[in-house]
Design a protein that fits this description.
Helix content: 25-40%
Number of helices: 7
Strand content: 15-25%
Order of helices and strands: EHHEHEHHHEHEE
CATH class: Alpha Beta
CATH architecture: 3-Layer(aba) Sandwich
Strand order of the largest sheet: 3-2-4-1-5-6
Structural class: alpha/beta
Oligomer: single chain
Length: 196
């Protein structure tokens, strides 16, 4: 049976707007992020998921809850990449002292290396193996990019070329053509969303 993994990025937080790297800092969703999560629910409601998983950080858990999935399987494997000394720092600030810095090539001092993030992504995908149907995964922007590259056996550095907005969905498909990225950075249509 074909498997679809729906990667669902959490809604907006304060640091989404400032561009600060948000790994372990457990920020809440903004009201805007909560509305984005509800729109995700409108978009995902028609899918009959065999399993729903979430990061243990509250921005992902709250997004799952507001999207209509209040009891996901929670795992720290779905946490955002550990930014170490770059937690709370913007890319622009990092590049002032480290020109050309790239997360998926260079990693973060005191944090997770690209190889470690790729390994964690492979571990999570192994846990999802055999789901036998669609699976929803509520997680974080950079780690979801790592999941996508692990899914299609690309080098983790490729993840730098995948943009992903807040409250966006990617669909990883495993079927007769093998593993592919079926859809990427799919954001719910604001005009089609119901009002809450």
């Amino acid at each position: 049976m074909a498997t679809d993994v729906y990667l669902v990025r959490h809604g907006a937080t304060e640091w989404t707007h400032t561009g600060q790297h948000t790994g372990s800092t457990d920020l809440p969703l903004l009201p805007e992020g909560e509305e984005q999560a509800r729109r995700l629910g409108d978009m995902l409601r028609a899918v009959r998921f065999t399993a729903v998983w979430s990061s243990d950080l509250r921005r992902a858990l709250r997004t799952a809850e507001l999207a209509g999935f209040p009891h996901p399987t929670v795992t720290p494997l779905l946490r955002e990449i550990d930014y170490g000394e770059y937690e709370g720092v913007t890319t622009e600030e990092i590049r002032r002292s480290h020109p050309g810095w790239e997360l998926f090539r260079d990693g973060c001092p005191g944090g997770e290396s690209p190889a470690e993030a790729a390994g964690r992504a492979r571990s999570l995908l192994a846990d999802l193996a055999g789901a036998g149907g669609p699976v929803a995964v509520f997680s974080h922007g950079h780690f979801m990019r790592a999941l996508a590259t692990a899914w299609v056996d690309l080098d983790i550095a490729t993840a730098a070329r995948l943009g992903l907005d807040a409250a966006a969905v990617g669909i990883l498909h495993d079927g007769e053509r093998g593993r592919i990225v079926q859809r990427w950075n799919w954001v719910p249509d604001v005009t089609a969303a119901s009002t809450h």
